[in-house]
From TrEMBL, chain A:
<comment type="function">
    <text>Catalyzes the isomerization between 2-isopropylmalate and 3-isopropylmalate, via the formation of 2-isopropylmaleate.</text>
</comment>
<protein>
    <recommendedName>
        <fullName>3-isopropylmalate dehydratase small subunit</fullName>
        <ecNumber>4.2.1.33</ecNumber>
    </recommendedName>
</protein>
<keyword id="KW-0456">Lyase</keyword>
<keyword id="KW-0100">Branched-chain amino acid biosynthesis</keyword>
<dbReference type="GO" id="GO:0003861">
    <property type="term" value="F:3-isopropylmalate dehydratase activity"/>
</dbReference>
<dbReference type="GO" id="GO:0009316">
    <property type="term" value="C:3-isopropylmalate dehydratase complex"/>
</dbReference>
<comment type="pathway">
    <text>Amino-acid biosynthesis; L-leucine biosynthesis; L-leucine from 3-methyl-2-oxobutanoate: step 2/4.</text>
</comment>
<dbReference type="GO" id="GO:0009098">
    <property type="term" value="P:L-leucine biosynthetic process"/>
</dbReference>
<dbReference type="InterPro" id="IPR015928">
    <property type="entry name" value="Aconitase/3IPM_dehydase_swvl"/>
</dbReference>
Automatic annotation (TrEMBL), chain B:
<dbReference type="InterPro" id="IPR001030">
    <property type="entry name" value="Acoase/IPM_deHydtase_lsu_aba"/>
</dbReference>
<feature type="binding site">
    <location>
        <position position="414"/>
    </location>
    <ligand>
        <name>[4Fe-4S] cluster</name>
    </ligand>
</feature>
<comment type="subunit">
    <text>Heterodimer of LeuC and LeuD.</text>
</comment>
<protein>
    <recommendedName>
        <fullName>3-isopropylmalate dehydratase large subunit</fullName>
        <ecNumber>4.2.1.33</ecNumber>
    </recommendedName>
</protein>
<comment type="function">
    <text>Catalyzes the isomerization between 2-isopropylmalate and 3-isopropylmalate, via the formation of 2-isopropylmaleate.</text>
</comment>
<comment type="pathway">
    <text>Amino-acid biosynthesis; L-leucine biosynthesis; L-leucine from 3-methyl-2-oxobutanoate: step 2/4.</text>
</comment>
<dbReference type="GO" id="GO:0046872">
    <property type="term" value="F:metal ion binding"/>
</dbReference>
<dbReference type="Pfam" id="PF00330">
    <property type="entry name" value="Aconitase"/>
</dbReference>
<dbReference type="GO" id="GO:0009098">
    <property type="term" value="P:L-leucine biosynthetic process"/>
</dbReference>
Length: 215, 483
């Protein structure tokens, strides 16, 4: 996982609540056995005017000019601004893979779905939960000025607006630590290998049927 | 000090280590694997030169991509026409062989949708932690198991460490009290709950479903309810263990036997919330007020009773909801205030991890028996949840009832619930579907999904539009749930 460092980036607004993972990456693209290459199909049904197929060259597909990510002013956006319950629906990690592959490093919304929340952090994407009021103001800011950027200071848990206003956000210490250091959490868990083995022994003695296989 | 909830007990029984930073290591008893969310996890293991921690905790079966026509299935993997899908199913087979993980392959009679297969085999037991790279893993909570969907990185983490990094959720109890009306099923109950609390109402919570109406449900009905906990935002849905749970599990292949069975049952009896357990949130619904449900929009909480109508976005509680409703009506091609019974259907899908078990098929067959699918319906299909469900249905003659009525009788898999195989909606088509999600494009590009119970789907197939199963002649759906 890439280290997450202090950065500032262009913000793209997706003014829609309950953006589900089917919308982020439609199912036909889940057939890939790789972790990469999903960016061209991010928001496929919103972004293109035709139905996409896996493995297709997307460079000649008709673009939906109304979709924000197709508008030149949001080119190179690294921060996605969204509405409540972002990432609801399925557990597909292809959703954060697609966001990351497209170039997004941060999503800001009033709330996120639980499984998506976990999946995003495991792929180096920082999800920032701000109040509905703060999100409304950011939408207004993006709308008002082209090239609107936000500075993201994970270390101090602040989003800094172009006019210098700092919006504080919460993130749990473990996820923050992993993001800042680009850590693989399997490696961290395996440092507790002895504790896991000891638990497993005790668990098996107490409830042997949990370890049973059919004859 | 107040007592523990069922969720608290399951959490405590699996807590390996609580870290200072608020995260915990939780031991995982069972991992179910399928072809879509596992290849990158195995690849990750391979790249890091790691081995699975405990092979026998894993059970695999292909389900999302598999074709459902007999002709294609007869050829095994080779019958999968889509080369990309074929590679994915083949990759699951290869990984299971390489690592020595038990897999029910494409034409094994035990193959099926993971959330049908696990319980059917007794591979899901009360008191277990169960994970799978699929959000509908909440299904297994019907057994008093702590079960939830995880992402692919977590699948890899569980393979490598037998643990999950987790944070304790909050406790919510959803009580459904009273007696369900005839023709009102588990599916209607859970849709009504989602309509009540919303698609984010359960975010951050483990929901325990309780109350007399929940206790009266069969295991299959309970699985339908827990299955859709995620559609209310909750990763975990739970139901306390009782006689119904224990009777269902007896003699299942993976269930304990003899003395171990007795010890297990004694242990499972404690898997209920203490009478003085404290919940962070409690929601109560009256069973008598729930009628057969139909979703009209593009989110599972956009749902109403069969006697209702499509809402007017202008009446929405805030601007965000108003915009969502307006957008949903546009996508669905519906008018504000249109009667639900006036919605005409093009296709009907009976299947999915929500509603593809034997009782679901019996319920639908009771409505279909002696009737014909309306001429205006382009396709009505029944897709059993597993090879064993299919076999049981055929032993009962349900396949013949469906075929005579004009339904297609298919091979087991996820099928048109998410349309990763060839079973899908065309743009603009309305589908009465027993599945779990009505998101835009979910069942096919531009497709319009209406979530309903199996009996309601069968009745819609025959009428060509939605009808109230309670208005059908006796012996039909109104008695289905008593079967």
């Amino acid at each position: 996982m890439k280290k997450f460092t202090h950065f500032d980036g262009v913000v793209a607004p997706l003014d829609r609540a309950n953006v589900d993972t089917d919308l982020i990456i439609p199912k036909q693209f889940l057939k890939s056995i790789k972790r990469t290459g999903f960016g061209v199909n991010l928001f496929d049904e919103l972004r293109y005017l035709d139905e996409g197929q896996p493995g297709q060259d997307c460079s000649n597909r008709p673009l939906n000019p109304d979709f924000v990510l197709n508008q030149p002013r949001y080119k190179g956006a690294e921060v996605l601004l969204a509405r409540r319950n972002f990432g609801c629906g399925s557990s597909r990690e292809h959703a954060p893979w697609a966001l990351e592959d497209f170039g997004f490093r941060v999503v800001i919304a009033p709330s996120f779905a639980d499984i998506f929340y976990n999946n995003a952090f495991k792929n180096g994407i920082l999800l920032i939960t701000l109040s509905e009021e703060d999100v409304d103001q950011l939408f207004a800011g993006v709308e008002a000025s082209e090239g609107y950027r936000l500075e993201i200071d994970l270390e101090n848990q602040r989003v800094i607006t172009p006019d210098g206003k700092a919006l504080a956000f919460e993130v749990d210490a473990f996820r923050k630590h992993c993001l800042l250091n680009g850590l693989d959490d399997i490696g961290i868990t395996l440092q507790d290998e002895d504790a896991i083995r000891a638990f497993e022994q005790k668990h098996k003695q107490a409830r042997p049927w949990l370890f049973r296989q059919p004859a | 000090m107040s007592g523990q909830t069922l969720y608290d007990k399951l959490w405590n029984q699996h807590l390996v280590k609580q870290r200072d930073d608020g995260t915990a290591l939780i031991y995982i008893d069972r991992q179910l694997l399928h072809e879509v969310t596992s290849p990158q996890a195995f690849e990750g293991l391979r790249l890091a030169k790691r081995k699975p921690w405990r092979l026998d905790a894993n059970l695999a079966t292909p389900d999302h991509n598999v074709p459902t026509t007999l002709k294609e299935r007869a050829e095994g993997n080779i019958g999968i026409k889509d080369p990309v899908s074929l590679i994915q199913v083949q990759t699951l087979d290869d990984n299971c062989v390489e690592y020595g993980i038990e897999e029910f392959k494409i034409n094994d009679p035990r193959q099926g949708i993971v959330h049908v297969v696990g319980p059917e085999q007794g591979a899901t037991l009360p008191g277990m932690t169960v994970v799978c790279g699929d959000s509908h893993t909440a299904t297994h909570g019907a057994f008093g198991a702590l079960a939830h969907g995880i992402g692919t990185s977590e699948v890899e983490h569980v393979l490598a460490t037998q643990c999950l990094l987790a944070q304790k959720m909050k406790n919510m109890q959803v009580r459904v009290e009273g007696k369900l009306g005839l023709g009102v099923t588990a599916k209607d109950v859970v849709l009504a709950i989602i309509g009540e609390i919303g698609t984010a109402g359960g975010t951050g919570y483990a929901i325990e479903f309780a109350g007399s109406a929940i206790a009266s449900l069969s295991m299959e009905g309970r699985m339908t309810v827990c299955n859709m906990a995620i559609e209310a935002g909750a990763r975990v849905g739970l139901i306390a263990v009782d006689d119904t749970t224990i009777e269902y599990l007896a003699k299942r292949p993976f269930a304990p036997t003899a003395e171990q069975w007795e010890a297990a049952v004694a242990d499972w009896r404690a898997l209920v919330s203490d009478h003085d357990a404290a919940f962070d949130k409690v929601v109560t619904l009256k069973a008598e007020e729930i009628e057969p449900q139909v979703s009209w929009g593009t989110s599972p909480d956009m749902v109403t009773g069969i006697s209702g109508q499509v809402p007017d976005p202008k009446a929405a509680r805030d601007e965000t909801v108003q915009r969502s409703h307006t957008r949903a009506l546009e996508y669905m091609g519906l008018q504000a205030n249109q009667k639900i019974t006036d919605i005409k259907l093009d296709k009907v899908f009976i299947g999915s991890c929500t509603n593809s078990r034997i009782e679901d098929l019996r319920e639908a067959a009771k409505v279909a028996r002696g009737n014909k699918v309306a001429d205006s319906i382009k396709l009505a299909m029944v897709v059993p949840g597993s090879g064993l469900v299919k076999r049981q249905a055929e032993a009962e003659g349900l396949d013949k009832i469906f075929i005579e009525a004009g339904f297609e009788w298919r091979e087991p898999g996820c099928s048109m619930c998410l349309a990763m195989n060839a079973d899908k909606l065309g743009a603009g088509e309305h589908c009465a579907s027993t599945s779990n999600r009505n998101f835009e494009g979910r069942q096919g590009y531009g497709g319009r999904t209406h979530l309903v119970s199996p009996a309601m789907a069968a009745a819609a197939a025959i009428a060509g539009h939605f009808v109230d199963v309670r208005s059908l002649p006796a012996n039909d759906a109104t008695h289905a749930q008593e079967a």
